[in-house]
């Protein structure tokens, strides 16, 4: 098991700043990690700093119910205000409120058990706010159902870039990981893509978002299957440049992306936004008391961590990523609290096997050194999407000159 900063025992008990960002409750590192995630996403519209700290001041980090209650409070407040301002014709204010509510609802449901009925209730509100926010975008956000298997579908959103006049735009497919889903992708990857001329398809793959919450579809190691279904869907659209379809996967999605690109060669570029060499190596000796054990069991369709480890044996990139044929970016925090060794293993193996791979480790001084740049997601968006525009041949100067 590699050393993880999240397990670090600290002498300081008060909130303080670390190389990976603001550490709100040192005695509760997993709660602090999620708080840091919410705090960072304020700069992408996912909250207001004062509201984040208001919630934090009222939360008892030893009580997950207080976490649910306080995030739900500020989520509902913004949701209601958004609706009220919309009725007055104050559309920009309404959009701002709804977008904040999206991220607050995501936080509210985070520690609930997977089958807790409140989880889907809160998620329904979250999606409603995304859709309300997206109706006033130009072009507007499209709700999408990607045909999957057994007559079921993957939940997704499609959004064209407003800065690219081309009839057919390149597309970035955005996938989350163990605990992130399509709606959060706006704050992590998608916003930067549409600013630079790419359409985005934000997807709830197996084990994510609406797909697991409504269809009970858990994750799978061979993610080229759902990714292939998404590409099939994009190929039916007349507004997509099918020769320039890229994929980004964040956190556990970093494994999904690398795995998919190894076998789905219609991808023109791929990004591991946080790399994972082996899921079981990442978990190490984690048991059912692990900080994310509940998420792991739910997403992996396992009754125990022991059972999750059995399924996790297939989630490894050895003998897989030597098959990647497109340019491959690994963007990883240099002080990722979940570790850095995994990213180096992925890079070294890909490089040794002739893959066109780039490793971008973000250092402490520039911030963004946390897992998936949760402490500074805008920097993560910049690094990923600038790399993509270079690989996909998008001239930002030509698009943005007016």
UniProtKB/TrEMBL annotation:
* InterPro entries (UniProt xref): AB_hydrolase_fold (IPR029058), FrsA-like (IPR010520), FrsA_esterase (IPR050261)
Keywords recorded for this protein, A-Z: Hydrolase
Q: Which Pfam families match?
A: FrsA-like
Gene Ontology molecular function terms on file: hydrolase activity
Q: Where are the transmembrane segments?
A: none
Record's Gene3D superfamilies?
acylaminoacyl peptidase (1.20.1440.110), alpha/beta hydrolase (3.40.50.1820)
Protein name, please? Answer: Alpha/beta hydrolase
The species this protein was found in: Mesopusillimonas faecipullorum
């Amino acid at each position: 098991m590699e050393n993880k900063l999240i397990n670090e025992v600290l002498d300081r008990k008060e909130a303080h700043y670390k190389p990976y960002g603001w550490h709100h409750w040192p005695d509760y590192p997993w709660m602090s990690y999620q708080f840091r995630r919410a705090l960072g996403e304020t700069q992408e519209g996912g909250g207001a700093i004062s509201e984040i700290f208001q919630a934090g001041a009222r939360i008892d980090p030893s009580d997950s119910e207080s976490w649910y209650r306080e995030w739900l409070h500020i989520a509902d407040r913004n949701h209601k205000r958004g609706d009220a301002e919309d009725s007055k014709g104050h559309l920009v204010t309404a959009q701002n409120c709804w977008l904040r509510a999206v991220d607050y609802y995501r936080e509210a449901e985070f520690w609930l058990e997977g089958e807790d009925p409140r989880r889907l209730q809160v998620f329904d509100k979250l999606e409603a706010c995304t859709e309300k926010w997206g109706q006033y975008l130009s072009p507007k956000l499209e709700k999408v159902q990607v045909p999957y298997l057994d007559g079921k579908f993957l939940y997704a959103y499609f959004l064209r870039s407003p800065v690219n006049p081309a009839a057919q735009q390149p597309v970035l497919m955005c996938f989350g990981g163990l605990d992130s889903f399509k709606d959060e992708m706006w704050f992590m990857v998608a916003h930067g893509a549409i600013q630079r001329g790419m359409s985005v398809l934000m997807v709830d793959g197996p084990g994510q978002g609406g797909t697991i919450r409504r269809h009970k579809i858990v994750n799978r190691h061979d993610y080229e299957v759902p990714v292939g279904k998404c590409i099939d869907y994009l190929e039916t659209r007349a507004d997509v440049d099918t020769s320039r379809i890229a994929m980004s996967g964040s956190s556990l999605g970093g494994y999904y992306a690398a795995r998919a690109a190894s076998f789905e060669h219609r991808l023109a570029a791929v990004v591991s936004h946080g790399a994972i060499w082996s899921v079981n190596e990442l978990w190490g000796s984690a048991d059912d008391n692990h900080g994310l054990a509940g998420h792991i069991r739910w997403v992996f369709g396992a009754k125990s961590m022991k059972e999750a480890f059995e399924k996790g044996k297939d989630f490894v990139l050895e003998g897989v990523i030597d098959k990647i044929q497109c340019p491959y970016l690994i963007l990883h925090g240099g002080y990722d609290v979940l570790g850095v060794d995994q990213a180096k293993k992925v890079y070294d193996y890909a490089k040794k096997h002739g893959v066109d791979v780039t490793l971008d480790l973000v250092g402490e001084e520039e911030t963004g050194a946390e897992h998936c740049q949760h402490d500074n997601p805008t920097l993560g968006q910049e690094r990923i999407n600038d790399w993509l525009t270079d690989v996909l041949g998008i001239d930002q100067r030509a698009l943005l000159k007016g």
